[in-house]
């Protein structure tokens, strides 16, 4: 690069992080580079990678430095890609995660976790700056890194919702990569998404209330007409004696007055139609699932469900049923 404007644009794009090769191409010598580092005007970040400034490195500069240090190509991945896509909370202290091609020679970088992928050619979000994995493959990477199958299902479900990943896209990503671990767990997360389980609270209700106690599995995202507009109920049990609705999040977590109004109108419309509508929040579902189960059971019995719930391990420990 002989043109100063091109050099300046490159420095801006790379957050003033450059490689030795780029410096040499610009006319610097190895002795000159060492002199700048020795004078503490520049700093060596990784082998052959330099910051043309002193002081702490912003996270944007650390990301670029990690990519430039991986010869042969790399993309940001896992939590780092999730941060850039906006569905993983930012943490400046977190290690930078990059993925390189499988078989790439060993790379040890301070503050960087290097992953290898056989599907490297298929996982990049082409055109993104800085280079990163796609949303769906970022979700899959995070789920595959889970310590156990249960956590893999939870993370795949949670991050797919946060990233706006369609269950079919996640299913196709699993089929493409055929991961040797947690594949069944991630397929379970795909099934949850297909069945309309659209929040972590809804997943916990399914697992801790319905499945753990043998309740019937209600219909998810059941459409209802409210003041001429189609809305959706979280869970609906359609029984011989009528419909019972479980609405998850209650009245304490609405973000605005309009959402609260819509929820109140749904309750009124259900009551006018002779349907029972009960709200449950995070605490009732996660801290007191057995009590919640008994309440739902009573409503289902009143509307024609003839079976009985089964005690779970928590019931037996706390006599909560």
Key structural traits:
single chain, 321 residues, alpha+beta, 3 domains, four-stranded mixed beta sheet, three-stranded antiparallel beta sheet, 15 helices, elongated, Transcriptional regulator, AbiEi antitoxin, Type IV TA system
Number of domains: 3
Provide the spatial order of strands within the biggest beta sheet: 7-8-9-10
Give, in order, the helices and strands: HEHHEEHEHEEHHHHHHEEEHEHHH
Based on secondary structure, the structural category is alpha+beta
Radius of gyration: 26 Å
Q: Can you offer a commentary on this structure?
A:
- With 321 residues, the chain is of the alpha+beta class.
- It folds into three domains: 4-64, no CATH class; 69-194, no CATH class; 214-318, no CATH class.
- Helices cover 47% and strands 17% of the residues.
- It is built from 15 helices and ten strands.
- The chain has helices spanning 4-13, 20-26, 30-38, 59-69, 78-85, 120-123, 135-144, 149-163, 167-177, 183-194, 200-213, 257-272, 282-286, 289-302, 313-318; strands at residues 17-19, 43-46, 49-51, 75-76, 96-101, 112-117, 219-226, 229-239, 242-248, 276-280.
- It has a four-stranded mixed sheet. The chain has a three-stranded antiparallel sheet with strand order 1-3-2, with helices on both faces. The protein has a three-stranded mixed sheet with strand order 4-5-6.
- The protein is elongated and about 85 Å long.
- The model has no long low-confidence stretch (mean pLDDT 92).
Brief write-up:
It comes from Actinomycetospora rhizophila. With 321 residues, the chain is of the alpha+beta class.
């Amino acid at each position: 690069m002989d043109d100063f404007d091109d050099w300046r644009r490159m420095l801006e794009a790379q957050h003033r992080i450059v490689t030795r090769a780029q410096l040499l191409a610009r006319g610097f010598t190895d002795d000159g580079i060492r002199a700048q580092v020795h004078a503490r005007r520049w700093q060596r970040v990784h082998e052959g990678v330099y910051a043309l400034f002193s002081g702490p490195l912003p996270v944007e500069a650390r990301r670029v430095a990690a990519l430039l240090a991986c010869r042969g190509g790399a993309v940001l991945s896992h939590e780092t890609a999730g941060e850039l896509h906006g569905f993983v909370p930012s943490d400046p202290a977190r290690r930078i995660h990059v993925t390189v091609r499988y078989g790439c020679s060993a790379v040890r970088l301070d503050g960087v976790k290097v992953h290898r992928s056989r599907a490297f050619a298929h996982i990049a979000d082409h055109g993104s700056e800085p280079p990163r994995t796609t949303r769906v493959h970022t979700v899959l990477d995070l789920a595959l890194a889970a310590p156990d199958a249960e956590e893999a299902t939870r993370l795949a479900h949670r991050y797919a919702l946060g990233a706006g990943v369609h269950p079919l896209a996640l299913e196709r990503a699993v089929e493409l990569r055929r991961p040797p671990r947690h594949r069944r767990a991630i397929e379970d997360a795909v099934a949850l998404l297909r069945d309309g389980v659209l929040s972590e609270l809804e997943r916990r209700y399914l697992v801790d209330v319905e499945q753990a106690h043998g309740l019937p599995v209600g219909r998810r995202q059941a459409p209802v007409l409210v003041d001429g507009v189609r809305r959706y109920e979280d869970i609906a049990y359609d029984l011989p004696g009528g419909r019972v609705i479980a609405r998850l999040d209650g009245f304490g977590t609405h973000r605005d007055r309009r959402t609260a109004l819509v929820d109140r109108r749904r309750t009124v419309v259900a009551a006018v139609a002779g349907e029972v509508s009960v709200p449950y929040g995070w605490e009732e579902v996660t801290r007191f699932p057995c009590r919640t189960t008994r309440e739902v059971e009573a409503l289902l019995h009143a509307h024609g469900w003839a079976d009985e719930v089964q005690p779970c391990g928590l019931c037996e420990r706390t006599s909560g049923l």
